[in-house]
Structure formats: structure tokens, C-alpha cells
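Dear all,

This email documents one entry for the complex benchmark we are building for the journal club exercise. For each entry we list the sequence lines for every component of the assembly. Then comes the predicted three-dimensional structure of the complex as a C-alpha cell string, followed by one or two observations. Please use this as the template for your own entries, and keep the labels exactly as they appear.
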Amino acid sequence: MAKRLTLKDKNQEKQLFQRRLLIATILIVLLSFSLICRLVYLQIVQHDIYTTLSQKNQLTLLPIPPNRGLIYDRNGVLVAQNIPVFSLEVIPDKVKNMKKTIQELKQIVPISDDDLKAFYKQLRQHRQFDTVPLKLKLEEDELARFYVNQYRFPGVVIRAQMIRYYPLGENMVDVLGYVGRINEQDLTKIDTTNYSATNFIGKLGIEKSYESTLHGTVGYQQVETDASGHIVRVLKRIPPVSGSTLYLTIDSGLQIAAMKALGENNGAVVVINPQNGEILALASNPAYDPNLFVQGIANDVYKVLQNDPNRPLYNRAIRGLYPPGSTIKPYLAIEGLNSNVITPDFHIGDPGYFMLPNSSHVYRDWKKGGHGTVDVSKAITVSCDTFFYTLGVKMGIIRINYIMHDFGFGQLTGIDVGEELPGLIPNPDWKRRAKNEPWYLGDTVVTSIGQGYNLVTPLQQANGVAQIAMSGRGYKPHLVAKIEDAQGNMVNIQPEPQQVINVDQSVWDLVHTAMVNVLKPGGTSAIIGNAPYTIAGKSGTAQVFSTHGVKSDKSNDLAKHLRDNTLFIAYAPVENPQIAIAVVVENSMDAKITTRKVMDYYFERHPVQ
Amino acid sequence: MKFLSNNYNPSSVLGTKPTQLNDKSIWKRFHIDPILLSALLIVTGMGLAILFSASNGDKDLVLQQVARLGLAYVVMILVAQIPPEKFKLWVPWVFVAGFLLLVAVLIAGDIGKGARRWLDLGIIRFQPSEIMKLAIPIFLAWYLHERQLPPKLKDLCVCGLVIALPVLLTAKQPDLGTAIMLACTGACVLFLAGIGWRIMIALAALGAAALPVLWYAMHDYQRQRVLTFLNPESDPLGAGYHIIQSKIAIGSGGVFGKGFLQGTQSHLNFLPEHATDFIFAVCGEEFGLIGGIVLITAFMLIILRGLYISMQAQDTFTRLVAGGLSMTFFFSVLINIGMVTGILPVVGVPLPLVSYGGTSMVTLMASFGIIMSIHTHRKLLA
């Protein structure tokens, strides 16, 4: 009985098991099928998506920086170049004991605490196999010492990087400006793709205004990388296109001569070829070394430059605003004659002062007792203030305004660097807006001798005198003469004529002759007149400190920073002008002598036949 | 269901010796099942090829795996020689020993990848939890075969304890993947033993209710894995990285694959764990849909053969053992491929017979040895 019961139970158990096994088998087959369905979905339906993702994983575009275009002066002297600098860098991945390695490195190459701080900061942000800079600029002896000991430092490498170098240093900074590291602000203005491998960007001067020409086009390397970013192989390489080479209008020799001529004086010299507007020299003194700024200037060095009372960072040639003083007089004479306010025969008797009708205020001439009988020609030659007081009042402030604007004052000259200032030629409108005061006739009187509210830059002065030299047919001042692209195609920059100043030739002749006489015996600048070439010029003085009508003969007794600024504008040779020059020296009488030194340098190398 | 009745047709049994089947082929003599063996050779052969690619052509690593496989095949053949009746006698002791080793690992185990899973016995280093993968189903079969099936509630409680203790100990290591596999093993045996549907539903409901409790008991990284499974794109470089890269590898393989040794995802190291848990993605990338279907089919061949053997087994013990082990094998394949293809959460379950690793290989082959033994030691009369 018991045995039969067990047997029956076993059959029952077997049947139960077989039922369950059947269910399990069906379940297993269905689940396996669902796995295959999943594979079909991933490998057929979504195949394209995952193929793209897989390629995105392994293919990376690495940008290759283009070489920045070189800059030469007009004679082929290299004034901005790219040089390799060597930095000491560490691959964290390959350094076992960072502290020990750095301690031992310090014995060979001095590493400052600032370097270390920057290093540890970057170390946290970099991937393990990226190199992290430890010391940026290695001197040659440091480099040599490291190479001898390199075997001791696995994972420490030397990396060469091209940086900008300005061989003429401070002599060219007011023309070239400089490049610096790209900052947040720059990033908003540039095509980040084209700059993806670039570290430096023009910050000032030519480097800034010709940035897009100098930069070039980024190249690419398509590489296969593994998951940690190591390059496995290079698949494709699109080389970068170097930036274009610039040939400046600047004559670096003349530029250096101008800096030398300025010497100890703060001031500026601008020399223009009036025949085509090419700027031959654009100097501001004191200057500074642009190479300091390329890799980021140290804070304390920058502070010193910034707090220097002589303001070396200030580009006086294009941003220096000075009252023109008596250099304004030729322009007024041209307007007076051309608009028939006066005739060449018009003359006054100069008692040494000027008074407006119904006023007791006395406007003094620079010469006590006056110049006697003065016509317009003599007025320029001896710089007679009383004559121009009279002329100014006769023609009125509006005419003064027009003629000064015709000669480019009170507005940008359009030079191909971005930082110039427009200056100011005052008029009643301006005074009402700016000062909320009416225009007085007395304002016209002082404006007529270039004092008062007048402000002009040395560049505008040189541009103005160039127009005089060309009898009103001058060219826009510019700094770049030729651009040569990476393929060697040369583009010459064509001189751009300025608006012709329509003035009768007899007027030009009269003013030219008067300006020649300025440098002859009896003229105000006869002291520099004895030259192997003919010069036409006009001097000017601008008061920095009001001496209350006491004329500035005694101003040498004043503290230097309170002494007058002197100015000089000139062109030479008179018959066929090759250079037009404007000089400003602050708190010094040296404008004339500075002008002569620069001109002498030029004509020694370009003798007049 | 013709094949089911064939074996029990008394006519085939008549006139033969009572102890042995009449056709004594060479396979029977050595207690090897040729069909199961061929299926195993296909899978392990493919596995070696995939591993060679996954290891970037690392010959040493592949040779190590070959040595392990050789050892595993030897163990399988040796185990196959042991008749189930003899084997049955050792079962309780094997289970107790395995359980003690599991306790030992918690106290004195080696730590690898943040978890205490390994036991170092001087010459060999192994995971006792792998032994439990064998010990649990066999012990359950041993316990249940003496009793009336379907199991009563009292028996179920004992079985529940037998499953729960090793599972909890393994989860504590922590090794969620193996713990799940152990629970799965037990569940398979109970299912085949005929546990009532109502009890199953009740247990499922209990399990669902226990999920929040489980959530709090989980380690942070385990919770993260669950969250990542639910939305892998939420953390593409962190926890979701494995799944995303694995799907990219498989999906970019297409129908025919990128070709042997041509998989960029694995060779450029975008695919993590590509020699171990995620090795199926290497297969998918290099051999495409075709390779995946071939491999899954080979797996199915092993599993269905195991189920067929369990069907032909002559008593409850061998039936439950063969069926339970085959189903367990299926679930480890399912969980691994499901995880690699992104339909199941990432739990550390290797792809059996293919992933690089030692203990699991030997215990797995031992289980196939047991199945072969069950098939080749059948007697004429039940």
C-alpha cells in the first residue's frame, strides 16, 4: 500500500515538474527572443545614431595655431617677430612624487612661489596626461642646466612656444602696440573657432587694428583618441595659414632718431610724407618696453609704469591733447585771405596789446611794445599776436571753426590705429553744451592765437602742416604701406587723398613764403634756419600755468612742470616737400631744436638734389 | 511532447540488464553528453575569441583564461563521473561548508574593488559566493526530494531560510549581482518543485512591499546604479557612462559588426570593464547582430539541453538539480546581456563562460558536470 502511494505521488510529482518545466521553457525562449529583439533595435533601428556617437567618441579635431604675421618697417627692418620661448612643464601622470620632484628641480632652476601657486592651481584643472606649466620663461643657462639633468626628472619636459617679440622695444611701441593673452573681453569679439589654438591677441596699436590681417587661419588635425584623450593616430591634417606680413610706412631709423631727439623731454614727434600721407615716424616720449606685456606684466612693474609722473603709457603722438598756440596762425591767415576778410595789404599798427571795443581788458602781444606796422605775412613771420587778435575778431569764431576742420582738427585723422583722440576746436554751440555758458568775444580773441579751449594732437598738427605743404591736396595719414599674405601676394596700400582745401594759389604762396621767413633772420625761429635744405615752419608756445599776463620770458625760473609747452610744425624742402613734421615738448623750449635734429637725420639719408 | 514519453516506453527497456542502458557508446562510458559538450565548446571558443579582442590582444590574459577553461573542463569531466546517488550523500556537507566559507569571507576575506568577496587559501583565491550558486539549488533539491511535492508551508520556510541567509551574507560583501543570482537560483528550484501560484504571487507582493526597505539598506553606489538605469543620460560621464558606452558599442556594430579586433569602443577604452562584465558589448561591436544571435543561440542550446536532461531525469532530486542549474545559467545570461544592452540595471553579473574570471568558470563547469552525470547515470528502472 505504502509503496503504491509513493509511486502514485511520484507520478504526480513528475507531472507537476513537467508542467513547470514547460512553463519555464516557454518563458526562457520568450526572454531570449526579447534579448534578440533588443539587439535588433540597437543594431538596426538605432544603428546610425550609435555609429555617429561612436565616431564622436574616437575622433577629435585638434586646432593648430597659425603663425602671426611679421611686421617690417619701410626699409625691411624687422620690428615684430615670433620667437620661441621655453617653458618647464610637468606631466602629472608620469611624476610619482610631485613634492620631491619640485624640490629637486628647484636646485637646478629657480622656481618662485608665484610660479608654484599658479602651477598647483592649474594642476587641479588639467587632465593627468596634459602638461602643466611650472616655469614660463627659461633663460638659456637654465635650459642648459635642465637638459644636463633631464634624466633625473621623468615627466618633466621643456616645451617651446612661439611668442611675440619686439626687437626695437620702446622705440616702436607707440606705433606697434603689443599683443597680450586673450582675456574674457577679447573672447566676446573674436571668432572663437579661429582662435581655438591662439593664446595672444593684439591689444593696442597696429597689433590691435590689424589683428585680423596678422592672425591668420587656424589649422586642424583630425586625430583618433582613446577614452583618456591620448592621441592614437593622426588621420588628417589641414595646415594653418599664417597671418599676413605688414610693411609699415615707418622708417625705424627716423623713429629712433625722433626718440633720441626728444631725449629727456616728455613730448611727441610725428613725421609724415605729405606726398602720400605715409607716416615716417610717430614717437612719444617716454615710452615703455612692449615685451613686458606679451606674457602678462607683473603687477608691481605695471604699477610703477602707471604711477610714473611722466606717464610713459600715454601715447602722446595720437592721444596727447595740447593747445596749438601760435601754430594755429597760418591756418587763420589762409582763411582770412581766402575769404577776403583781409587782403595781403591789410596792416595794423601793433602797440603790443589788443583791446576789444567797449572793454578795458588788455590782451598782450608776446613782445612788449609790439612789432610796429604788421601785415599778414609779417604777422606769421614774427608771430604777431595783436594782428591775429584783430583778424580773429574780424572773421569770427565760425570761420575759425570751418578752416580748422578743413585742416583736420577737432576730428579723427583716420589713421589706421584705433586709439587716437579727436581733440577740440571750440565754438559757441560746444561751449553752451559743455559749459552751459554763452560764447564771449574774448573767447574768440584767445582762440585766435591757439590758446583757450583749443586742443590738438601732434598727429593732427603733422597732418595739418602736410596739407599746407601740399597746398590743400594732402593724403590721409597711415602707418601700413604693404601687406603680403601667406601665399606671397603683395597688396600696396594706395594713398587716400583728403578733401581738397580750395584756396587760391596766391594765398598758399603767401603763407608758404611767410613760413619760410619764420626760419630766416628776423623770424621767430631763425635759430634753426641755417640748414642745407629749405624749411618752412611755425613755432608755438602754450601756457601750462597762467603767469597773469607777465610774459613767459621769465618762465625758466618756474618749476619745470609749470613751464610752457613748446610746439613746432614744419615741412621741407619747401620746393618739393618730402616731410612734414610736428613736434611737441612739454615744459621745455626744445621744440625747434628737436625738429631740426629729426629733419637733419632725414635729409642726411635723403639729400636734396 | 513525443520525446517526453519515449524514455519511459517500457518496450525499450525489455531484455536489457537492469543497471545500465543497452547502447554503451564511448560517450556514455565516460559519462559525457556530446550535445552539451559541443554547445559548451562553441560558447567557450567564441568567448576566447572575444576575450582576445577585448583584452587588446593580450596573449597572457587569454592564456590564463585558457588554463582556467582547461581546469574547468577537467573538473566538469571529473564531476560527471560521480553518480548522483553518491553525490546526494555529500550535499548537506557541501552546503554547510560553502556557508561557513561565506561567513569566513566576511571575517577574513580579501578586498577587491571595494568589496570583500575573495578568500585566499594560499594556493587559490576564490569567491565562496560562487560555490553557493551550486550549493543552494542542490541543497534545496536534496531537501525537497524526500518530501511530498508541492512543498508545504513548513518546508517552504526552511527553503526560504536556506536561500535568504547566503543571499544576505553575499549582499553584505557587498556583491549585489551574485546575491541576486543566488536568490534567483533558489527561486528556480522552488518554482520547478511546484510551489503554488498563490504563494508565488504573495511572495512577489511581499517583495514589492520590501523594495523601499531594500532601498534604504542599499549602498549609495547601488542606489546610484538603479537611478542610472532609470535614466542613464542624467549622468553621462559618471554612473551612466557604462550603459551609454555599452549601447554605443553594440549599436555601432550594426548587423555585421566592425570586424574582429576592429571595435573602436573597446580598443580605445571607451567601453569600461570590457573584458569582464561588459564583454558582450565587444561581441556586439565586432561581430554585430549576427554574432549576438549566434552567441545567444549557443547559450540557448546549452540551456535547452539542460532542461531536456532534467525532463529525462529519473527522480525528483536529479530533476530539480538539472532543471534548477539550467535555469540559473539562463538567468545569469539574461541578466548580463540585459544589463549590457540597457534593459536591466547594472548589477555586477559576468557573462557566464565568456567573461574573464576564475571561480565562476569552474563552478559553472562543475554544474554542467553534474548535469552530464545525471544524464549518463540513468538506470533502466526508476
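Observations: Residues 39-376 of chain B form one domain. The beta strands of chain B are 110-112, 115-120, 125-126.
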